[in-house]
Amino acid sequence: MVGLADDNDHNSGAGVPLLHDDHHIRLSNENDNDDDGNYDADYENDPSDYPDGRNEDYYDEEFGEFEERQPFTSKLEIIGWCIYSWAAEPFIVSVVGTYVPVLLEQIARDNGVKFSDKISPCNGAHNPTIPIPDPPNAPPDEVISSAASSIMSMFAIRDILDPSNTSPPSSQPHEDFDDNICVLPLLGGRIYIDSASYALYTFSISVLVQTIVVISMSGAADRGSHRKQLLIFFGIFGGISTMFYWTVKPDGYYMASILAIFANSAFGGVNVCGNSFLSVLVNNYEKLRSYYLPPNPTNEQVQQKLNLRGEISSRISGLGAALGYISALIVQIGTMLIILHIKNSTNTSGIGGGDPSISPPTTPPPPSPPHPGPQPSYIWPIKLVIGFVGLWWLIFQIPIMILLKSRPSPELKLRHTVGLSFLIL
Q1: How far is CA 193 from the centre of its chain?
Q2: What pLDDT is stored for residue 276 in this prediction?
Q3: What stretches pass through the bilayer (predicted)?
């Protein structure tokens, strides 16, 4: 339904004719007018007037934004958008929520030393391929981190509050609980952190990096035709970063942390691009685009269209979330079965925990050569399933490439992007 706007719809000073179409106002160009200055209706329907193949911009009075007239959203596009959640959701559930914290803590403990002397390895059998760090030159009070100090205080309070503890608190020497604390030397032994807090520090840094990445690219994701490219880029980058856990060595706690930071930041970028894609799919949904509003709609009519838009958005986003949860459940169960199968087939214990101190006492094995070479790592099943999740994330970028379309929108100038980023910060 297309009709010329009334005189009271025109800007009084500019005299620019406006065209209503489903409550969108088309901004007239100079070419719309013939030699007499009158509106040329044939211009709108002539494809040759648009050499780039796109229609003119429309201004949405409801939502206060420009949008180009594009094809209706297809079912394949909706499926492609849902697959992004199907591909990425297992990462946050299985990798971030389950396996990487266990892996980081175990690697930190395998490479850590006891807090009491900063020399003795935390585990009874030290990996011969990992050198024992030299004792620190500075006094312990100067090199101990705040995290280890907090752990010491926690153990002291626990001993005081323990009902079975009948001796005075002052008679409890620090060495009793110092030996239970495992610290990881960083930066050549200049800093020591509690091995149990290593995963917490890693994910804290990853959230900071993720915030910077999201703020930096949010303008490009919301405006322009870069949504699909950014979505696929971050998906591929996150999948490859997760797969690189296959290469982490027993002493590779630095690499394990860096990969966690990279992958978690990529997941944040994927979510930003996916959410921005949702609004584009909803705005071009056929039922919403076909909903006609008169030139001067009432509040009730506008509210009805807003409600329709919300229903469509909820339906699409709900489908994507449901598929993401199903995918996460499938991958979580599959990875657990893989670990259990490896544990049963190799008849090993402590997968995931890896603390020999909690194992029942056994007869010590016969002495082995001083340096038998690299020992098999009991954390490799965890690395295996983490890499499998990354492979899952990477493979499902293929249907996203095929099904999703790059839908353009008005470009956002650089000064607006920078200003918005600083405003958010």
Answers
A1: 26
A2: 87
A3: 198-218, 230-248, 254-282, 319-342, 378-404
Non-local CB neighbours of 5 within 8 Å, separated by 6+ positions: 17, 18, 19, 20, 25, 295
* pLDDT given for residue 224 in this prediction: 61
Beta-carbon contacts of 235 under 8 Å, excluding residues fewer than 6 positions away, are 84, 87, 88, 266, 270, 393, 394, 397, 400
d(CA 160, CA 166): 9
Long-range contacts of 321-328 (CB under 8 A, 24+ apart): 321/85, 323/82, 323/83, 323/85, 323/86, 324/85, 324/86, 324/88, 324/89, 325/89, 326/86, 327/85, 327/86, 327/87, 327/89, 327/90, 328/89, 328/90, 328/92, 328/93, 328/94
The long-range contacts involving 352-360, CB below 8 angstroms and separated by at least 24 positions, are 352/102, 352/106, 352/382, 353/102, 353/106, 354/106, 354/109, 354/110, 354/378, 354/379, 355/109, 355/123, 356/123, 356/124, 356/125, 357/123, 357/124
pLDDT reported for residue 246: 94
Residues 361-418: pLDDT tens digits?
Answer: 455 555 444 433 334 456 889 999 999 999 999 999 999 999 998 877 655 554 544 4
Is the Cβ–Cβ distance between 57 and 66 less than 8 Å? yes
List the Cα angle 262/268/274 in 5-degree steps: 135
